[in-house]
Amino acid sequence: MTTNAQAPALVSAASISERSDPAHVATLLDAIRRLRKVAITYEDGDGAISERTVWPITVVYFDHVRVLAAWCERRSAFRHFRVYRVRPASILDDRYPERRSLLMRRWREQDREWRSFLTVSDGARG
């Protein structure tokens, strides 16, 4: 049986890409492993900036984009954040209140649209 700390922090939904991750992805992966909330600044596709506290559960790797899947406290829902739009994150002292395995299950059940990212192409960005 896999515990929360042992569960993979990454999900690969496409072939291996030669793109490299932004440096702050290591912080996000560390927060996932430690089950910690993260304070992020996020820039959406229109350039609007927002501050969020999220419970990061996995980073999904697609051919042309990396996506952080997380529970967003601001929206009270699962959200997907393109990692190149996340400004360097701060790991908070607070652990999220649910086991990561339960969050992962809820994410897969409630937000099956995450699979729609399989067709996303961001050109040179990632």
Short description:
Helix content is 17%, strand content 34%. The chain is an alpha+beta fold and 126 residues long. Strands 1, 2, 3, 4, 5 and 6 form a six-stranded mixed sheet that branches.
Please render the helix and strand layout as text:
Elements lengths: L9 E3 L12 H10 L1 E8 L5 E13 L4 E7 L4 E6 L7 E6 L4 H11 L16
Parallel strand pairs: 1-3
Antiparallel strand pairs: 2-3, 2-6, 3-4, 4-5
Textual characterization of the structure:
The protein is 17% helix and 34% strand. With 126 residues, it is of the alpha+beta class. It has one domain (10-112): SH3 type barrels (Roll), CATH 2.30.30. Strands 1, 2, 3, 4, 5 and 6 form a 6-stranded mixed sheet that branches. The longest helix is centred in the last third of the chain and has 11 residues, at 100-110. Mean pLDDT is 80; it is low at 118-126.
Number of helices: 2
Count of individual domains: 1
Percent of residues in helical segments? 10-25%
Terminal residue distance: 33 Å
CATH class value = Mainly Beta
Task: Flag low-confidence runs.
Answer: 118-126
Give the CA-based shape: globular
- Give the radius of gyration: 14 Å
Protein name: WYL domain-containing protein
Pfam family, one: WYL
Domain WYL: 24-89
Organism: Rhizobium hidalgonense
